[in-house]
Amino acid sequence: MATFHLFPRLPAELRLRVWELTVEPRTVKVGFKSRYEGELWQTTALYSKTPIPAPLQTCRESRNAGLYQRCFTELCVLNSNRKNAQKKYRRDGYVWEGQYSYVWCNLDIDMIYIDGWLFEDFESIAHLIKRLKFWRNMDEFWRRPAGPGPGCDALRWFKNVSEIHVVLDESDDFASWHGTSYEDPWPCDNVLFIDEKEGEEMRMMDLEYKYDREAESSTSLKQSLTFERASTISIALSEPIHTYLELFTHSNMATFHPFPRLPAELRAQIWQMTVEPRIVEVRLRVRGKWGEKTFNKLTSPTPVPAPLQTCRESRNAGLYQRCFSDMPWRGGAAEDAEPRYVWLNLDIDMVSIGWSQFEAFRPVAHLIKRLRFTRDNTDEYWARGDEPDELCHYKNVSEIHVVLCEGSEFEEWQWAAQDYTWPCGKENVLFIDYEQGQEMKLTDLENKYDHF
What we know:
2EXR domain-containing protein, 2EXR, 21 strands, seven-stranded mixed sheet, alpha/beta
């Protein structure tokens, strides 16, 4: 049957389901009509050469089914005269005017195709796009903010995109985009390059692997995992993960190029294995000011962990967290100043506060599990003051390191087990003398210098 005449007699729920089945992914090309008037380019309207979806031209029921939405009306702002709706703004010396218009899209499945030179015109709606396609040539302006248009930095605006197709210019080839995975801020890893002239396609990771000048030419399994071999490695295998890591740990490769081809579960475990305990120096000193305590800015000389500087996948693996950003660190700073933070893995990292006062870290004391500080037990402020009582706020600490100040000796701390309350227990307290290069647990120190 060319026509199903009984369709209107079907139950409404079934008809709605049928209409939903008519929706298919499309490539919707979106742009602006413009003309040159005087010394300015005048944008007259938002337009799309892609035909309106068939369900919207069928009947009222299909139009009301919510299969498609009117999108990108934000690109043309209405003024007080609705009959002559105009978009008008000034950027880089250009005045743009346009009519109020829209494009029919299903943003969940439709691929939005735009001109890569016009990224800035789509900045206000970039967060709505989930599948992006654009044409762009790889030239000096792509990575130069001073050039015409925002260049590759505009990719950051498309933060919700899950798939990107890049159509190559006629003057470019796949090799022209070599290095793009680590030089350009791609919002997702699912990037496909399309050479319409040659009728070829290539994934970004495949492109990098093919044109990487440092790729090993050896076919040995220990030197270069092929795509077929890498794709067969699974976490479900009986062999432990270190068995597979040995394949390239003992090889001569400085870089394991097929790493992106490994299964996601295996890559996640590898990232987890890069996490090692660190001693993170954190400072937040307190100074008195007419009876008021003012906190200086939070600082840390410890470098940001390497996995956070590697790639998007390692940053999203949850290996480290932004910590201490809610502390009252402001000291004469503007109220809207950006809060500071420190990258930490609180389960294994040791937070070293040096001479900073315990009270300064009271708001986050319950988060710290491994604590290090420097104190002088002959100092009256420490030994006879109230500061040792602040240790009770570090109730979740499982390990404490006490660094002796210059000129101090272990003997000065022989009564530390009786004089102070250690929330982690005295058996988990370690004293460190950097001058002598020695360490001693509190229990051993107590036994050694016990005069009774």
